[in-house]
Amino acid sequence: MIVEFWLLGTHQGPLRAIPATGGRFRVRMTASFVFDEDEQLICERVYFDQLTMLRQLVSALNWKNPATWLRALKALRGVAAPSSEPDRRLLDTSMPDDLRRDRPVT
Known about the structure:
Helices cover 27% and strands 27% of the residues. By secondary structure, it is an alpha+beta fold.
């Protein structure tokens, strides 16, 4: 199943290494869901434009306030920071039986 939707929110907590800006955002997202034969969710993948979200969060900052400059610097450092390793539980999964191929893909 594929779902397309608008995600609306306010940046009140850290977003990876980016500290909260207090800015509001509205970004278009797409999510795909994979279910097993018992209709149990086995995988969810979410896609969105991260740059659009970041632009909205940064534009909400009050640039006349000197404290904003420090917050913006922290946000830029967060953007530049290397991403952390994904949770091993997300990587150590097996392919569902109905998707396995007994022959090489050509």
